[in-house]
């Protein structure tokens, strides 16, 4: 029975022991499993303890307590290194309803990675994993996906992942940037035009919607579509039919819809700036993208990733600079982090990038007090006292050229307290 499943699958009893694996599992994971003996966590996590003992959800336990199917995104150790996997666990019952064991179906996620890997989304924090779970779910259907997240949080990358993981991945992925689209441009760009439709239309041109046939259309910043064009957009999305500018023939395009906005669309609906019917048409399956502030744990891996794929791959950030980078709030999210890394690498004269090479916005005095900002923005950017202390100490450590005793006197604390704080924030004095 297990071999009838085309994805990798295993059968486990409640004591975590694997009793059967299918052909797809053997081909994908190439791992030595001793049936009736190996436990799932030993094989997938190289650990003697179940997943929930080392920070991951255990779908087997969930399944056991509810007697219903459970799902989780896990990081598995495979012959090729660590990789993401979407797990579906189903209880298998006998005729009397007694649970005999669990069927685990594994779906490899190759558009995301825990470590630096070109062309993938990097991260391993809990909010990132929750997002992956939603992306994987969305990609298995043709439901309209709405991506909501701050600017620079990775909406375009997620839209591409939804497409890549779907059955349409061999067809086009077309991006339509909605910001600044005038009515004329909107129609000619989306629907194309016929020869002679307007002055300058010397040949006919295909529209983006036609190009996307069979694939996915990504409407970026859909909240910026003006009211008068929202009606036309709704008609297109409802019927998938359109007419080229200057054309008479009705055309049809089969496309999967993914939209994104950094604005709160429901608030726009309440204010009467976005049509409610259009909102419900595009928001079939909302996916929230966490800001970088919510996934601070991912910063060091992202820093390594961006430096590795930049022209400064031989350079490295000092531990103090990394601490400062981790304490910053990133209103521009991952895009801002990427810029900061490239800027600092360019500024650094040596192969080590020190905290003094980081741009002013990241420096502690800027993070702590920026009087020019409105009180509302300043409140949003406020950092905890602990983060502020850590950021300040990290800069001091890079710049202070004296002994620890001298520094302790300057900071008006004992040398022991200084060492305790340095240890706590994993900082080092440049001259000790
Ligand atoms: N998880 C990630 N791992 C690696 N790089 C990422 C990740 N998320 C985003 N990026 C990178 O960050 C940059 C910004 O991402 P993207 O353009 O997708 O953001 P966005 O939310 O669409 O921004 P905007 O709202 O301004 O359109 C890109 O260079 C992208 O490759």
Automatic annotation (TrEMBL):
Stretches assigned to the Sigma-54 factor interaction domain: 121-346
InterPro entries cross-referenced by the UniProt entry: AAA+_ATPase, AAA_lid_NorR, Homeodomain-like_sf, HTH_Fis, P-loop_NTPase, PAS_4, Sigma_54_int, Sigma_54_int_dom_ATP-bd_1
Record-given protein name: Sigma-54-dependent Fis family transcriptional regulator
PANTHER family attached to this UniProt entry: TRANSCRIPTIONAL REGULATORY PROTEIN (PTHR32071)
Keyword line: ATP-binding, DNA-binding, Nucleotide-binding, Transcription, Transcription regulation
Keyword Cell cycle: no
A GO BP entry: regulation of DNA-templated transcription
């Amino acid at each position: 029975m297990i071999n009838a499943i085309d994805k990798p699958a295993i059968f486990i009893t409640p004591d975590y022991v694997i009793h059967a694996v299918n052909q797809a599992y053997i081909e994908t994971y190439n791992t030595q499993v001793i049936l009736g003996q190996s436990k799932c966590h030993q094989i997938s996590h190289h650990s003697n303890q179940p997943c929930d003992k080392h920070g991951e959800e255990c779908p087997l336990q969930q399944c056991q307590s509810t007697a219903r199917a459970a799902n989780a995104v896990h990081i598995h150790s495979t012959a090729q290194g660590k990789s993401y996997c979407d797990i579906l666990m189903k209880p298998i019952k006998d005729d009397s309803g007694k649970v005999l064991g669990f069927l685990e179906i594994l779906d490899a996620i190759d558009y995301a990675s825990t470590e630096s890997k070109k062309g993938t989304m990097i991260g391993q924090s809990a909010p990132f994993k929750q997002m992956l779970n939603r992306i994987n779910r969305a990609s298995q259907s043709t439901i309209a996906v709405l991506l909501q997240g701050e600017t620079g949080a990775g909406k375009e990358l997620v839209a591409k992942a939804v497409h890549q993981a779907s059955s349409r991945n061999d067809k086009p992925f077309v991006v339509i940037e909605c910001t600044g689209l005038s009515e004329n441009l909107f129609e000619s760009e989306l629907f194309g035009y016929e020869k002679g439709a307007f002055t300058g239309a010397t040949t006919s041109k295909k529209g983006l919607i036609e190009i996307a046939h069979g694939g996915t259309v990504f409407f970026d910043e859909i909240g910026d579509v003006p009211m008068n064009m929202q009606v036309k957009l709704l008609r297109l999305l409802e019927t998938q039919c359109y007419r080229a500018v200057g054309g008479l023939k009705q055309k049809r395009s089969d496309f999967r819809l993914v939209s994104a906005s950094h604005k709160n669309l429901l608030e726009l609906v309440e204010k009467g700036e976005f049509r409610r019917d259009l909102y419900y048409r595009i928001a079939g399956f909302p996916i929230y993208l966490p800001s970088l502030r919510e996934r601070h744990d991912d910063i060091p891996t992202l820093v390594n990733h961006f430096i590795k794929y930049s022209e400064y791959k031989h350079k490295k950030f000092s531990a103090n600079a990394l601490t400062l980078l981790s304490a910053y709030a990133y209103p521009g999210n991952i895009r801002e982090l990427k810029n900061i890394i490239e800027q600092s690498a360019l500024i650094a004269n040596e192969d080590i990038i020190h905290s003094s090479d980081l741009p002013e916005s990241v420096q502690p005095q800027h993070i702590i007090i920026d009087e020019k900002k409105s009180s509302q923005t300043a409140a949003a950017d406020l950092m905890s006292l602990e983060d502020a202390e850590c950021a300040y100490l990290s800069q001091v450590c890079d710049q202070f050229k004296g002994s620890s005793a001298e520094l302790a006197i300057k900071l008006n604390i004992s040398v022991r307290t200084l060492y305790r704080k340095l240890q706590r924030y994993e900082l080092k004095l440049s001259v000790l």
